[in-house]
Structures are given as structure tokens and as C-alpha cells.
Write a structure and sequence with these properties.
alpha+beta; Nuclear Transport Factor 2, Chain: A; 6 strands; 38% strand
Length: 200
């Protein structure tokens, strides 16, 4: 295999490790996927990779139920830097108006990687939220959402944000979606990163 293929395999492995180790609560190994200056952006958290490990661990201990799955992946490598887009689903379970619900949010992780000390490390993870839905866990249950609250959030993650806000999370309201200026700016930042610019 040539070096580019090996690099892409290593990046894909790091992405899969992120999901498995975070969702399993394997915090020490989860910490190893991040660069020292790594940064995580999510609806409910924006900050350093180290702080994201900490708050994820705290939430896990309290029973917060957020899981992830991964799909197709596209990776661009430019020397020691890379941009990866990988299809993902975020699955969160919690009560909404006293009804236990599952939210499924589909999108992409837009990842800024850098090869440091021979390892590909995550410098920035910025999700792109494309569409979502909410369903009662018990199909016979009745769930009625407040439409005024729902409309406060972007279309791509409005149900996820609704559930999170109802459970005490402060939700960021300008995350990139499938279309629009926020995601176009992210694509430009990705190109700049490959050319040697900053990740954030």
C-alpha cells in the first residue's frame, strides 16, 4: 500500500476508535485520539478535547445516553494534514414532557486531523447536522412538542436540541447544516486547513 492509503486507514481507525471508546466509557483510550490542542464542537458542548472527555465521563456516570454510529467516509490528505467527512448518526435517549424518547440525528463529522509524532490526531471535530426525528420509546405513548420551542432551533437538529434543552443542556443554535452559509464557511476552513491555515 502507498503512504496515502495507509494515512487514510489510520484516520478512519481514529474515527472508529472515537465512537467505540466514547460510547463504551473507555475514557483513557478515548483521550488518546485527541491532539493536545484538540477542540470539540457539539450542540451541547464547545471546548477542548480534554474538557470534552471530562464532561462526557461525568454525563456517562449520571446516565446520559448519547450513542453514535458511523457510515461512509471521504478523506483528503495534504502532507501532514487531513480533512475527513464521515457520515454519522447521533442517538440520544431521554425524557421529553415525561415521555421517554429517542432522537436520531443524521449528519457528518467534519474532522480536522494532523499527523504528529507519527500519529494522526484529531485537532477539531465539527459535526454537520442534516436532519433528525424524535420518537417515543413506547410506540403507544403520546408526545406533544411545543412548536414555538421547536422552531427556535435549526432544522437539521431541532428535535435533538429540543430534547437536550428540555434536559438542562444549553444548546448552540448556529451549527452547520446540510445547506447554507455556516456549512459553506466550514468547507472553506477545511480548504484553508489543508493549505496550512488554522483549524479554528
Amino acid at each position: 500500500m502507498n503512504e496515502e492509503i495507509l494515512d487514510k486507514l489510520a484516520i478512519r481507525e481514529a474515527q472508529e476508535n472515537w465512537v467505540v471508546w466514547r460510547d463504551a466509557g473507555d475514557w483513557e483510550r478515548f483521550r488518546t485520539v485527541w491532539a493536545d490542542d484538540g477542540h470539540m464542537m457539539a450542540t451541547w458542548f464547545q471546548g477542548s478535547g480534554e474538557d470534552f472527555v471530562r464532561v462526557s465521563k461525568e454525563g456517562f456516570a449520571k446516565g446520559v445516553n448519547i450513542l453514535h454510529t458511523l457510515g461512509a467516509c471521504s478523506i483528503e490528505v495534504a502532507k501532514n494534514r487531513a480533512i475527513s467527512q464521515i457520515k454519522m448518526s447521533i442517538l440520544q435517549r431521554a425524557e421529553v414532557h415525561n415521555v421517554l424518547c429517542d432522537v436520531t440525528c443524521i449528519g457528518r463529522f467534519f474532522d480536522f486531523f494532523e499527523k504528529r509524532g507519527g500519529r494522526w490526531l484529531l485537532v477539531l471535530r465539527q459535526p454537520i447536522y442534516e436532519k433528525d426525528r424524535i420518537d417515543p420509546v413506547d410506540p403507544s405513548a403520546t408526545l406533544k412538542l411545543d412548536r414555538a420551542i421547536l422552531k427556535q432551533f435549526p432544522e437539521g437538529y431541532c428535535h435533538l436540541a429540543y430534547l437536550q434543552s428540555q434536559n438542562g443542556f444549553k444548546v448552540k443554535r448556529d451549527m452547520p447544516g446540510l445547506r447554507g452559509p455556516d456549512v459553506e464557511k466550514l468547507y472553506q476552513r477545511g480548504k484553508a486547513w489543508l493549505a496550512g491555515g488554522p483549524a479554528y
